[in-house]
Amino acid sequence: MPQLTTSGDAADKIAALRRKSHLVAEVYTAPRPSRADRAPRANRPGKLRIVVAIPSAQRPGILSDTVRAIARQDRLPDRVVLSLGASEDLGDLNPSTLPFPLEIVRGRGGATARRNQIIRILRRDEIMVLLSDDFLMAPDYLRRTLDVFERYPDIAMTTGTVLADGMHGPGFSHEKGQALLARRLQSPAADRLQPVFSGHGCNSAMRASVILDRGLRFDESFPLYGGLEDLDFSRRIAAHGRLVKDNAARGVHLGTKTGRPPGMLLGYSQVIAPLHLLKKGTMTRRQAVAMIARDALSNLFRAIHPPAWADFRGRLRGNLRAVRDLLQGRASPQRMLDLKP
């Protein structure tokens, strides 16, 4: 369990964080804004608390813009937790300018390990809103999400509505993402919940009491790139409560390409990850085969004239390498450590 510290000013803590190499949590509490400027928090005894959790690595500029944007929420989080791969991932973010407490957890490992580092410091009365470091929430996202969990105690996980997703193209800048969000929020939200099979990878919310009571963790079998970890976790938490899509909790996913794994590693994971989940029982044979075939065919066709924003040829090489390893009987998630992109 990482130790939390609260002494010293923000600059000293940032400097201390940069000097440490082991797993550590640093807590930065910004000066409280005036009552007139402060958005409400529902942290009275017996009330649920809301924590925004963001794992990130090698994308400091993106992360800092996303964290600063959280200040626009009409219901501020009770705390924000960043799980970083290195101290430099903090970028130019100044905790003293934020209207909410900021905690930083740093340790070794890939995407799933960074998520689990956050889970280790959760509290039972919290709702964890797990975001990609390039997801921009509508100003009422946290308030609406918290309201759903308070009204429906049988819900274990919610996932929001993505109004625009830059993953399907070259991605959006922060400024373009904010403009898209403002424009698409002009249409009224469909205030309804609907059952869903899995939470969205860029934005989902989970009841901490369910996670902690059941000892749930993200699968760390993949040492570098998770791949389907959200689906796997969703299906395991689904055994303990409802999973729903909240059409009123909206946002934009920038889909920023910097800091993402090389195409070959992603392609390898596109084959190995579904098979790993099939073996675990969180994905059916039909789902696994369909997903592998879809990704492989997409890589094959797009490798002919690949766009500049994605390495489809590298993904195809990764697909083929995974098939070769399968035929040789040595395919495993850990093999990604031996691949040369």
From TrEMBL:
Gene Ontology MF: a single term: transferase activity
InterPro entries the record matches: Glycosyltransf_2 (IPR050834), Nucleotide-diphossugar_trans (IPR029044)
Keyword Transferase: yes
Domain of life: Bacteria
Keywords of this entry: Transferase
PANTHER family: GLYCOSYLTRANSFERASE, SLR2126 PROTEIN
Protein name per its UniProtKB record: GT2 family glycosyltransferase
Organism: Rhodovulum adriaticum
